[in-house]
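User: I'll paste a sequence; please echo it back and then give the predicted structure.

Assistant: Echoing your sequence first, then the prediction.
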Amino acid sequence: MNLDKFELRFNDDINMQTTNDGLRVSGYVNKTNQWSQTLGQRKKFVERILPGTFNKALQNENEIRFLAEHDKDKVLATTRNGSLILREDNEGLYMEATIAPTSYGRDYHTLIQEGVIQNMSFGMAVIKDNWRKLNDGLYERSISDLALYEVSAVKDPAYAQSTIAARSIEVIEDVEITEEIKEKRELTLQEQLDAKRSLLKSQEKILSLFESDSVIMKDIEKTKGEIRKMEAVLDSQTTATTADNLEKQESRMMTPVGTFDSDLVKTNLIREKAKKMKGKYSLVGRTNIEIQKEGKLEVVLQDDENYDKNLFVGDSDNVILDDYTGTKILIDTQRIGTGVEASKTLLEKSNRVEQEEVIENTAIDRIHDGLNRSMLKGEGNMESLNADTSVSSITPSVEVNKISWLDVTTLIGKMNQTYREGAEFIMHTNVLNKILINVDFKDHIEFDMDEVSDERMYHLLGFPIIVNDYADENRIILSNLKAGYKTLFSENLKSVTQDIYGNQINKQYRSFDLQPTSNTNKAYKGTIVYVMDVFAGGKVINKDCFARLDVKTA
């Protein structure tokens, strides 16, 4: 294929870092299977590069150069001598480049170091693609084969295009659409939610025409449950988008040779590791999580009690002045930790990075389970949900050793209606089993998708059931953990000056960091002990978000 024209794609989500002994950059030039921003002049389209496409292009073994501003006379690195390394992994096209210390290389080193140049682009010729047209006129393009010619650090996309044009290469902006497959566009989740809300209004209007109709009432409850789930999905997507943006920023960060440290980045890394605690029956993962450097946080207790004062005053009288203080509580973090023993032989014979990632996830899972347990048993600095002081109301069951339909509906009615949406049941496995075999509940319990953990689990009257065997066997708690319980994770910086081999280092560890530790006995056994510490504390900040049913016992 002749290099007489190609398509140019820019990526402005790159943060390049520099070192003083040359420039080493690494990161993702393009993420595969992700839709781009809208492209095209005459006909608008979005595109994605399918997984495996870059691998196929790299197998051609043609020289690919890393240029400055797409200027062929300013070669910063090249695959020919190994100074540019390109590979496709499960994320996309990944590059590593070491820039030679030429005069313009040093100049671009300075421009990147000063943040003047922050963009990356690459030039390609598309060999095979597929198109489809949506009802709104937008086209979708999926690229499955291409020729990759060059990647470049660019300051001004417009200048880069003119530089390429000066090389008698045509930059294609309006791609010829070779095949159009018209496809009905699916409704967005927000559009589906709006439609469900409209349906609910219609159902309620129909119900108003009849004094009582159990079928319509059941349909209304079902629609309300679907609306709650959609709203929960939208909320989780907002959180996931924020996390995804951070992960993209972090994965595309151009990492220098040496140490790069940032308190903001580290705090955000703690946040992202904490978000791994979103298991199927997670308690702590559903709470309002706060991340900060300090280990203490003062919070004003909240409630939805009515303001019980007569506020009418004369024209010349002063209004009542009440200070907004409220009752304050202090959340104080405490260390919770776990250790994992790993074989040196296993680490040496396998991908150590992958093994340490498995060990890290194992440690996070253990700490996650420990925090869930402590929220029900009041261990450490986590306030217990089982305490009488943690709930706004305690309702006894109607019968002894039995949970009835009336008991559950009464429990729901006891919770402040402001917090019913987004609420969940918390109960012991044995309590759930009693409900499952009770015919009163057969039409009101479903095994459905939980929008927080994205796993299937039991729902009662549309509320997910969080099962934990540290819950009391004679209680059901209806809670809105997101609104009523705050969990604090603090950084708790710790400096280490010597590694496990006795070498002098200067490394800092924070909550959720995996730290290899030196242990003479374990070293003789040929194992390494990894330790993870987390500093955590939690408090109920709004009792109106919690109501409890106590089953009478004989």
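The two ends are 85 Å apart (CA to CA). Confidence is low (pLDDT under 50) at residues 180-184, 246-262.
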